[in-house]
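From the pipeline queue, job 12 of 40. The input is one protein chain; the requested action is below.

Action: predict structure.
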Amino acid sequence: MDWGTDLWDQYDHIDKHTQSGLDLVDRYIKFVKERTEIEQSYAKQLRSLSKKYAKRGSKEEQDCKFSNHASLQDILNELNDYAGQRELIAENMMTGICVELTKYIQDLKLERKTHLSDAKKAQQVLESSFKQLESTKKRYAKEWAESEKATQQAEKIESDVNATRLDVDKAKQHAHARTHTAEECRNDYAAQLQKYNKEQRFYYYSEIPQIFNKMQDMDERRIRSLAAGYCQFSEIEKKVLPIIAKCLEGISSAGGRINEKQDSILFIEQHKSGFERPADLEFEDYTQGIKPATSDSSLNPPKVRAKLWPFSKKHKIVQAEKHMPPAAEDFSHLPPEQRKKKLHAKIDDITKELQKTQDQSEALEKMKGVYEQNPQMGDPSSLEPQISETSQNIGRLRGELAKYETWLSEAVGGEESSNSINNNTQHGGVAADHSQSIYTEFDDEFEDVETPVGHCTALYTFEGNSEGTISILEGEMLSIMEDDKGDGWMRVLRASGEEGYIPSSYVKLAP
């Protein structure tokens, strides 16, 4: 069942029904807005209440050492978080329901207006066709009546003995003309009637049903969206229920954390004097007076639990830019892995630029060929400078690509050599004295104790943040375990036992 088939003649009811549906959406939007206002007001009042009863000042902070005072502060904090969840509910309802439905209903109103306008236009077209049919029918009736009258007049003149031959011929011609006109009007009426019937069938069996079915689909979509809005009204609050439950659990936990015995002990420790109770008074000692039961002792606050571990923070020295070595074109100033990544990225960029330049060169060659075949389109010689420049760029890019690929092969080879060293260290190493070991970012150990090939002094501080590198300080004496092999790095050994790679430009060789 659908509106176009069963409600083809209920335009007015469809109009009212769809308008009623849109009014319902507007009504629901207003309802949700008022709900959000209530939630916001409720959250505001909860925050004010929490702030009003929150402890402030040194004396109140002292009171908060008692578990029953501290629990109230925890409850107020949980209540403040609870208020935040109520505000979140209001915000999500406003954005998820009110804003979305308001935007959606505007589109529906425009769509409904379009459908109703199409129905009105179709009805006006049919009514105009019917009026034209009526006009053609009336003209046909009039002309047929005139034809009948002219025919009777011709017969009357023909039967009149006093009429001349000319009068009879004239009357017959007039009757014949009227009859011909009436036949034409009859044909026009028949054609118009056929046209109207066709338009009427299209209107009632195709056009109006399609429009009404579209309105039915629009209304059903409205109902689905409204149903989703109804569900959201609940789902939005359900999503924050776990957090609200945690707030309520926190309030319950705050009550459960109260320890009346501990509070009593704390109060005793805060205020006990430590003096002995006065002894019984004797008559003879009355004149000696009584020692005032006062105390100058200070409060013994409860011991604060010591930290389980120290939070020592390593002091880092920032190297000035003037001390940094200049960046090399082959990225040899970088650690091996970083160098490899930089070279890969550079090769990719050059490859893309080379492909683009080659495509440009091919396009110029094709354009030159077109100009040679069709001189009227352009001068082929005008493209020579661009073709020459493009060829030069291709040669330059190919040279750079080969250069960076060579550096990459060197970097990969150096990395494999470094990896082989590191792999060897995983199978064997010198046992380190744990009493003298320190924390480092990389604690790689080498398989054998090697003899230094030289010594050097660090010119600058270097933070070894990459794999295989170590950190050094300015002025530190280092032992060279492996010389620079052309990649800008050398392996050194610190006095502390740390071993790794550093930039060769960061040190000065000892004589």
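Job complete. Residues 143 and 199 are 26 Å apart (CA to CA).
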